[in-house]
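Review form for a predicted model. The reviewer records the input and the model, then writes brief findings.
Reviewer: anonymous (R2)
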Amino acid sequence: MQYHPLGATGPQVSALGLGAMGMSHGVYGPADRAESIATLHAALDAGITLIDTGDFYGSGHNEMLIGEALRASSKRDAAVLSVKFGGLRDPAAGWTGFDARPAAVKNFLAYSLQRLGVDHIDIYRPARLDPAVPIEDTVGAIAEMVQAGHVRHIGLSEVGPETIRRAAAVHPIVDLQIEYSLVSRGIEDGILATCRELGIGITAYGVLSRGLISGHWRKGATDAGDFRSHSPRFQEGNVERNLALVGALRAIAEAKGVTVAQIAIAWVAAQGRDIVPLVGSRRRDQLAEALGALDVVLTPDDLARIEQAVPKGAAAGDRYPAHGMASLDSERPLQR
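Model under review:
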């Protein structure tokens, strides 16, 4: 495993991170608790240090699961925990809004520390921009928690250049967590350049577009409660076009003797040492495949062939339903 600093001011982290969201039931269908814990242990044993979660994943279940896995691991001290906060849930697992007020920041943090069983969070970040709260207020509240020793570093998630600059003016930001993959390349239109100018790293989620470009997903394989059942890219009229892109990518992967998932992950990693792909492996076999991407070397010719097979903007459908896209500060048109 290779390790790089996360941004100019962040901790050393593994070149691949593990996103734990899918280990809580209800996102991508049923989850297996024992297998999830075994996968977390396997990731730590393989040298993965960056583990990403959110306090609203499974309404706290995800944090408790990670806490349980850490308590039983000899590598618990190596883990760098990244936690998103702010999403509001109801008892039926619905979404009721977002809260990033300073008082809410400290309240959410107190519960996360308890559920994870730790005395500090390595990277703490609002999951979205709260339109009712200036980003300066939210980041300022986290900065107070840094001063108090409860948080080590501050990150952001799914915000655009203006918000990034305003946040960084309050306190150093170590990374921006944002979707980035062969079929989700919006950050290339200004966000990535802003982060690099300010020395902010990228933790890229959705590198396999929720399994769409993993090479394993098949049409009709999604349960009704699965996020993908209402994701635009998986709907009739879009999914067929997107799977055709996967077919073109498969030909390139097979020529290199690797899997589609491995070449898709390797492409993200090849975009810069300041980018850490987060893989959402829920099982040990998925994790082993993802780890194999670290051995894939993409030549300039490989990258050119991939670009030809899956050109920027080729995906059909948005990455979230309309209401989800509307909540993303990162999707606001750039001010020219």
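Findings: The chain has a mean pLDDT of 92.
Further findings: Residues 124 and 252 are 38 Å apart (CA to CA).
Recommendation: see findings above.
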